[in-house]
Amino acid sequence: MKRLFDIFFSITGIICSSPVLLAIWVLIKLESKGPAIFKQTRVGLNNTDFVMYKFRSMYLQAEKSGQLTVGMRDPRITRVGYFLRRFKLDEIPQLLNVLNGSMSFVGPRPEVRKYVNHYNAEQLRVLSVKPGITDYASLKYYKENELLGKSADPEKEYVEIIMPEKLALNIQYINNNSLIGDMFIMLQTLAKIIC
Q1: What are phi and psi of 98, to 5 degrees?
Q2: What's this model's pTM, rounded to 2 decimal places?
Q3: Alpha-carbon span 28 to 25, nearest angstrom
């Protein structure tokens, strides 16, 4: 049932957002060199790697100076990128991930392998379900970049404090997930973006 939901709404979302997708693609290409779509290897279901799609919000090769985005004034972020990140528009291409089955609308946000390597046996349970575009952890840490921007050691704070809290919320989701619960999370996410 969840897969049918994902297929239907990802196709609907791609069709309905196609004018927005085209406009964003043009704006990114006009502002900076490089592809409009950013592809990054993340860890998904059953601890397997997959390619996740996002609109590129940083200058080319920016990832080489670190995986974490620290604050909304990170100099690696383009002007268009600030706008995309503010309204989560950079995430729209993940509808393709939902359509191809590597992601779902709701599920634990996928991490890069560097951080998954820190998971303990209990935390690895988050890899027993498909990763998602949104989840309880995304709602709680909606302004994660700003939190990390205030930290003296963002990497340490993420690995030792934020990531374990997010994983605990993900395990809570796994223990109690349902289609109704997923719809509630999606509505909360839309409310966060709009407000």
Answers
A1: -65, -45
A2: 0.90
A3: 5
Tokens of 66: 């670190």
Degrees, nearest 5: CA angle 75-109-6: 120
**What backbone torsions phi and psi does residue 90 show, to the nearest 5 degrees?**
-65, -15
Q: Are 130 and 104 in contact, with CB atoms under 8 Å apart?
A: yes
CA distance linking residue 32 with residue 141, whole number of Å: 29
- Name the token pair of 162: 């934020």
Residue 54 gets the label, from left (phi > 0), alpha (psi -120 to 50) or beta, of beta
What is the pLDDT tens value at each position of the chain, 195 positions in all?
899 999 999 999 999 999 999 999 999 999 999 999 999 999 999 999 999 999 999 988 766 666 666 655 678 899 999 999 989 999 999 999 999 999 999 999 999 999 999 999 999 999 999 999 999 999 999 888 888 878 888 888 999 999 999 999 999 999 998 989 999 999 999 998 887
E strands along the chain, which residues? Answer: 37-43, 49-55, 104-106, 132-134
Between CA 62 and CA 57 the distance in angstroms is 10
- The closest of 34, 27, 92 to 59, measured between CA atoms, is 34
Answer for the pair 68, 146: CB distance below 8 angstroms, yes or no: no
